[in-house]
Known about the structure:
elongated, disordered C terminus, disordered N terminus, single chain, Rossmann fold, hydrolase, nine-stranded mixed beta sheet, 22 strands, alpha/beta, 27% strand, 3 domains, zinc ion binding
Amino acid sequence: MATTSRSSRSAQRSSYRCSECGWTTAKWVGRCGECQSWGSVAEVGGEPVGRTVAAPVTSPAVPIGKVPAKEALHYPSGVPELDRVLGGGLVPGAAVLLAGEPGVGKSTLLLEVAARTAARDQRVLYVTGEESAAQVRLRADRTDAVHDQLYLAAETDLGAVLTHVEDVRPRLLVVDSVQTIGASGAEGVPGGVTQVKEVAAALVRVAKTRGITVVLVGHVTKDGSIAGPRVLEHLVDVVLHFEGESGSRFRMVRAVKNRFGPVDEVGCFDLGPEGIRAVTDPTGIFVERHHGKVAGTCVAVTMEGRRPLLAEVQSLVAQTSGERPRRTTSGVDGSRLAMVLAVLQQHCGIALSQRDVFASTVGGAKVTEPAADLALAISLASSHFLNPTPRGVVAMGEIGLSGELRRVRDVQQRLSEAARLGFELAVVPAEVGSSSRQRTIDGMRVLEVPDVGSALRRLELHRSFKLIEGG
């Protein structure tokens, strides 16, 4: 009897799982080893320990050379910017996860995709678990997304969703959101680790077996990562992040995982009361059109994925009113600003340690690439000396701690974009060991300079690098 009891206990193995990310361990710990959350690890009960036996195979193994190489065929989603990020469009049998903060426009974007797909006489099933069918219909009326081939269902049960798929037989399935759907056979509440894994796995199986495209909406945590277990991102084929500031209409879709295309593409959108529309040329959003010459501005050329974007950097240098000068940034990396200020003081003689410095970008753009260092330095010098930057100038280049300018990637692509938009002069880093020189590319003058001091002198922003008191 005792032997049987010990044998039964040995056949059961207790495990502990994190309720935040799904990480499991054989013993209890106070802090999750994956997401570092405190107090989130709890026992999930005994699991039978067995031995897996051989099972029939679905198809015999063949030499890899005899496997037919079939390229995944994309079909357009109807939204060109989204197709750009996906690598050509939606793929039959693919599972796509779209994550973003609340209110960023995920449902609006996917409703637009569903309507465009239905307009090509292809059935689409839109399952909403967060809103009622009437709420989605109101949004569809506002954005002109009503179509006979677009089917709408308000469900929160996985079994009911699968039944709708059987009845409708769609080409595209949209589930909004995966955290609101619950599986009756899994433990926990909808949105929990076990539930999300079960729901996502079932929907991925439907996509693979039926050859339909499944798009899942996912929530994000406070730090911007996708909520739920990490295995959710491994189950799907494509992971997209939908980003945007609450005070701006501009939105970006960025691919962080894509089995059918590149992961360095970015799609740009404009979210308004009438819906969401693609922005094929977003540069105008990030560049201010001034009526006259304005001090403290410079246009930088950054790369968002493989797309060059021009963003205007604005700086304001003012006399401080307190004991400690303020350093305030919006859209600019604060650590890069501190480094550029130190370089300007040490190597250019521009003392800003006792001045308040404010740096910002236009249109809510986030400029974190080191290639924007030179534009930031030019705007700071221009504001400090109250000397406007010449019109039609763009700048790109990383600033080193010794004041030298370092080359950045995709210079030719950046210059071509600036020339296309009508800029007349580009300031770029010179080759190693070279002095300043000027040449012409695509009708635009290109000024190559070795260091930040040379750039300021050539643009006549330096005033001999002497501090102007009270200015």
